[in-house]
Amino acid sequence: MTAPAPPRPARSRRPALVAIAAGLLLFALVIVRVLVGTPMVPLDLALRVIGGEAVPGYSFIVMDHRLPTAVVALLAGTAFGLSGTIFQTLLRNPLASPDVIGVTLGSSAGAVIAMAFFQADGRALFWFALLGGLLTAVLLLVVAGGGGPGAAGAADNRFVLVGIGVAAALGALISYLLTRLSLQSAGDALHWMIGSLSSSTWDRAAVLAGALAVLIPALALLIPRLRILQLGDDTATSLGLSVPRTRVALILVAVILCALTVAVTGPLSFVAFLAGPIAQRLAGRPSFPLAAAVGAVIVLLADIAGQNLFGGTELPAGVITGALGAPFLMWMLTRSPTSGSGR
Q1: N-to-C CA span, the chain
Q2: What is the 3-state secondary structure (H, E, C) of the chain?
Q3: Into which family does the record put it (predicted)?
Q4: pTM for the model
């Protein structure tokens, strides 16, 4: 008789248990987002509406407002969480999120330029935001020299420092552009810059869902190469990996995830920055699926809190995420610089 297999250690089950808990929490938050608000929606009526029944007074609230908002929040948080974790893992630095290194502001600058000079909205806004994010990433690669092999740690730190400088310059550019707008246009742009889910529609949810349907499989194909890249550029090159191509491909996926989401929701501050480190702390190791789930939880919680916890005042989700992220950023800045996300 063979001896029974030893039980799996608790640590090996931890990521799976955390993932299940995150999935259940997401499901609960979607339900809360649909039911809670002014007016409250009874669960049985919400289920009837979702099932296709027309319920006067509730069909519009559920199907045209709250449910698409919940879906957009779920998808946007997923995209931001993945984008931030790609940058943090690739650059071996928890500060290297799109919020900090300028990619989010690059997308925002592209969108503000579109609004200021072309009165663009809808699909055109997506393309301008994507172009702004891509141009920012190209600038970072050129100035920081992040595309080629070499002293990985120095290049990665240089990428982050250059990104912080680029973010400051882009912030100044956006401020200047806002002074060139009419009062109404500037107000619209400022509202969008805060980051809000108030304009969520099924069409916007479809844009995010389509992008994720393409980019998540692409990321899944790149993750094994990213793991090799974490061994160091010299080791990765000796194993036959094309370091420049892999870096550029990963950055391209991260930028598109970030830029398209910014075009839909505006720059929801610090979601990309928070998701990866929180997921790593919960699971005990870096996890892209869990980072996506944590990003979605953050956005849903921020939207629910902003809509319901401040009396008659409804705050955009970006205000809540910014309030959460700022102290976390200060805490990260006081940590040892060697405590990177990808280690």
Answers
A1: 42
A2: CCCCCCCCCHHHHHHHHHHHHHHHHHHHHHHHHHHCCCCCCCHHHHHHHHCCCCCCCCHHHHHHHHHHHHHHHHHHHHHHHHHHHHHHHHCCCCCCCHHHHCHHHHHHHHHHHHHHHHCCCCHHHHHHHHHHHHHHHHHHHHHHCCCCCCCHHHHHHHHHHHHHHHHHHHHHHHHHHHHCCCHHHHHHHHHHHHCCCCCCCHHHHHHHHHHHHHHHHHHHHHHHHHHHHCCCHHHHHHCCCCHHHHHHHHHHHHHHHHHHHHHHHCCCCCHHHHHHHHHHHHHCCCCHHHHHHHHHHHHHHHHHHHHHCCCCCCCCHHHHHHHHHHHHHHHHHCCCCCCCCCC
A3: Belongs to the binding-protein-dependent transport system permease family. FecCD subfamily.
A4: 0.89
Query: pLDDT band for position 178 (50/70/90)?
Result: confident
Nearest by Cα to 272 from 89, 79, 137, 136: 79
Least confident of 28-37, 110-119, 151-160: 151-160
Report how far residue 125's alpha carbon sits from residue 123's, in angstroms, rounded to the nearest whole number.
Answer: 5
pLDDT at 211: 94
Is the residue at 192 inside a domain? yes
- The pLDDT score that the predictor gives to residue 342 is 42
Query: Is 4 inside a domain boundary?
Result: no
CATH value at residue 31: 1.10.3470.10
Instruction: Specify if 174 maps to a domain.
Output: yes
> Which residues constitute the domain of residue 114?
21-328
Confidence of residue 343 (pLDDT cuts 50, 70, 90): very low
Q: For the chain, how many structural domains are there in total? A: 1
